[in-house]
Request: fold
Amino acid sequence: MLSEPASALTDLLLGAVAVAVAVRIGRRTDLTPHWRRMFGWTATAALAGSVHHGFVTGSAHWSDQSWLVVTFLVVVAISYLLAASVDEVLGAGHARTFWVLRSASLAAYVVVAATLGASIGAILLCEGVTMFAVLALWGVGVRRHHPRAGAVAVAIVASVVAAVIRALPADLVEPTGMDPTSLYHLAQIPGVVLLYLAATRRDQGFEPSPSGPNAGSDGLGDRRQAG
Reply:
């Protein structure tokens, strides 16, 4: 019997949607492979979360370790979102930019997780730095008339709204008949679908200018076939 049936099943549904999206986007050879990796890790995190809520959360010994694994998978997925954004907006040759932006939030996450615990609050606190960087990058994309910029921004806002729902008091969520965690899982699905639609939107010939001595060879600007 599932420990937290609603949370486990809604996480499973989120994972299934993310798997489908990752498979579909993986067939595209004209996009940075970081999109496929991001959706793949999102699916992995959701499926791991389903196992956690369904079978592990009731264990006094394994619950904390299991949740630490789930949160780490979420952090990896967001890392690839940042990588895809750097690749899309700035182009090849910007690996250093990615690592500078990412290192700040990764370091913050390790410190917070080690001292206060790996909670949803810890993720929101530390990954907020990364999401701000992602939004700032796509703000640059808007100024450069990147055809995907507006759609990606809408998708990210949808994901932020889902996170806000997770943080709402249980009594405000109670009229929906669901707990905050389960509702959060469902609220993430539109954001995943919108981000997929944004990432696969035709670029109408937009091409960021490669720069730096290693342009085209650092992995962030790689548009080779994903697979």
